[in-house]
Design goal:
By secondary structure, this protein is of the alpha/beta class. The protein folds into three domains: 96 residues, Tetrapyrrole methylase, N-terminal domain (Cobalt-precorrin-4 Transmethylase, domain 1); 100 residues, 2-Layer Sandwich (Methyltransferase, Cobalt-precorrin-4 Transmethylase, Domain 2), CATH 3.30.950.10; 176 residues, Vaccinia Virus protein VP39 (Rossmann fold), CATH 3.40.50. Helix content is 26%, strand content 24%. It is built from eleven helices and 19 strands. Strand 12, helix 8 and strand 13 form a beta-alpha-beta unit. The longest helix is centred in the C-terminal third of the chain and has 14 residues.
Length: 396
């Protein structure tokens, strides 16, 4: 298959491309481009629309193995664009990418915001709830929209989450002749529709709800009591050490609190929540939406049978379904340097854990937490059930 040319096109269209790239386009056999980029295309090449679904582009390429093909995309193809998927499929040497200035860069320039101080969030093909995990006082966000209704959806979410005073800036058709800007606040937003092609800038106020930190409050999770409590969860997360792109197995996930908190601290991470109870997994899914995290993957069934088919993890948490087989399988699957943390509150689970600790080593800890509660007109200490925690790191 010939090596395709992936070209980023700014709002100015094909005419704004460098002369060298326009000359190369003229010599192509096939050009794949959205209708909005047809103006200015040379007459020679055959031109077709981008396929739907997007993944069919690889069928187009394989069906035209001897043709030179150019793929026209918006802005920088490697910045939330088609180029990332194409390179992932074909490899970095399997195509050539020519970037243009992205809409995000244009937006930051118009707003006077240094890109290094902005967080980029995409709700294109993703739920608007993904915005939740990026909210904090004084945040500057650049939001990649789904369509013309995205600003209103974002405004409603901001207002519902205590950020109604956030400033919103809709920047449409950036760099083109139809460039437009709409400013307002989340709680005063009245524009039901704006042009589909836009970036949303969000300025959070100085005062607003503060993020939950490493472990969110127990009250922020819908649960039926099967919940790793916040203090024990924070201890586990500190040892599981989430990082960007990390993969977690949460075995016996219950309400999914450990998986959700892991994802809150692991941008682009994936958490496979394994539980026998579909109702619990549905609850975990809902908790992931509430906390605005993506990457929550429910897996229904017996852990011993299900984990064999899961991708290798960087971290494993066992909060239920404790067995010698599950522990051994997790240890084998863990990537080098990975961490396994297990919690037990019953004598039976603790006996399995202690046997594993005696066999493999690691750190065995008893966690005891007590809360001050009213006792008549006074207060006393009310203990939670103690938790036995085992932490094991894979060395090779």
């Amino acid at each position: 298959m010939a090596r395709p040319l992936v070209i980023g096109v700014a709002e100015g269209g094909v005419a704004s491309l460098p002369a060298e790239i326009r000359d190369r386009l003229a010599g192509m056999d096939l050009v794949v481009a959205a209708p909005r980029f047809r103006d200015g295309l040379p007459d020679g090449p055959e031109t077709i629309d981008w396929p739907s679904p997007f993944s069919d582009i690889f069928n187009v390429l394989s069906d035209n193995p001897d043709k030179s093909v150019a793929l026209l995309t918006t802005g920088d193809p490697m910045w939330y664009g088609a180029g990332a998927s194409i390179v992932r499929e074909l490899g970095p040497d399997g195509c050539e990418v020519v970037p243009a200035v992205s809409g995000l860069q244009h937006a930051a320039a118009r707003l006077g915001w240094p890109m290094a101080g902005c967080r980029v969030v995409s709700i294109h093909g993703r739920p608007v709830s993904g915005l939740v995990s990026a909210l904090h006082p004084r945040a500057r966000l650049l939001l990649i929209a789904q369509d013309g209704g995205s600003p209103m959806a974002a405004a409603k979410l901001l207002a519902a989450r205590g950020y109604g005073a956030a400033r919103m800036h809709v920047l449409a058709h950036l760099g083109g002749s139809d460039e437009a800007r709409i400013d307002g606040t989340a709680d005063g937003w009245t524009h039901d529709r704006v042009p589909d092609f836009h970036i949303i800038g969000i300025e959070c106020p100085d005062a607003g709800p503060v993020p939950h930190g490493l472990a969110a409050p127990d009250s922020s999770f819908d649960n039926d009591g099967k919940l790793t409590k916040r203090d024990a969860r924070a201890s586990a997360l500190a040892k599981l050490a989430p990082f960007p792109g990390a993969v977690l197995w949460d075995i016996g996930s219950g309400s999914g609190a450990v998986a959700v908190d892991f994802l809150r601290n692991a941008p682009r991470g994936i958490a496979y929540a394994v539980d026998r109870n579909q109702t619990q997994l549905d609850r975990g899914n809902a908790n992931a939406v509430t906390h605005g995290v993506t990457g929550f993957k429910p897996v229904c069934g017996d852990a011993a049978a299900q984990i064999a088919s899961l991708p290798r993890p960087d971290a494993v948490f066992i909060g239920g379904g404790m067995s010698e087989h599950v522990i051994s399988a997790a240890q084998v699957a863990l990537r080098p340097g990975g961490c396994l943390v297990a919690h037990a509150v019953t004598i039976e689970s603790e006996s399995v854990m202690v046997a594993a600790w005696q066999r493999a080593g690691g750190d065995l800890v008893r966690l005891s937490v007590q809360h001050a509660d009213p006792v008549g007109g006074f207060h006393g200490w009310r203990p939670l059930m103690p938790v036995t925690q085992w932490c094991w790191h894979k060395q090779e």
